[in-house]
Design a protein that fits this description.
Layout lengths: L4 H7 L7 H23 L22 H14 L5 H6 L10 H24 L3 H5 L33
Helix pairs in contact: 2-3, 2-5
Length: 163
């Protein structure tokens, strides 16, 4: 089960009901989207089994090495406002690189895939999709555990605090 956007916000110390925090999240999304486009643009980033697969590609179509380079680029190219949010996730209890960027990147792929599948099924327009479900809490195995957690209910693992 993928974590929800609310859980993601809480793990970063943000509040989903705060306008400024939502703006920060949108800025993070835009920065990740730029790197995602570079990832999509290089066929060598895809797994051998996905080399001849037509678009749209999913997160799982890319090599872990390509994903890790993208995560590094996201942090390096982040602006002064969002960089610290990406840096919060430089390591977690599993040693994952930049879990906030990974979470956003994965969800950008997942949301695009879901919209494309719904569009094909319904033959709907792009405008109709803008008002649709954003997929904040859908089910998936690929991102299970990417948000830090602690043994206390309602508490998230903090890499610094819980060392």
């Amino acid at each position: 089960m993928s974590t929800t956007k609310r859980q993601f916000f809480e793990a970063l110390g943000l509040n989903v009901d705060d306008h400024w925090d939502c703006h920060l999240y949108q800025m993070m999304n835009e920065q990740v989207e730029k790197v995602k486009e570079k990832l999509l643009g290089d066929p060598s980033n895809r797994r051998p089994t996905s080399q001849n697969k037509p678009e749209p590609w999913s997160y799982g179509d890319f090599t872990e090495a390509a994903i890790e380079v993208a995560l590094w680029r996201i942090t390096e190219n982040a602006n002064e406002v969002t960089r610290h949010l990406f840096q919060i996730g430089d390591a977690n209890e599993r040693g994952d690189q930049n879990w906030p960027a990974r979470w956003i990147l994965y969800h950008l792929f997942r949301n695009r895939d879901a919209r494309n599948l719904r569009r094909k099924a319904r033959g709907s327009s792009i405008e109709a999709e803008k008002t649709g479900d954003e997929g904040d809490g859908g089910s998936t195995q690929n991102m299970q555990g990417y948000l830090p957690s602690s043994s206390e209910p309602g508490q998230f693992y903090d890499y610094i605090r819980d060392q």
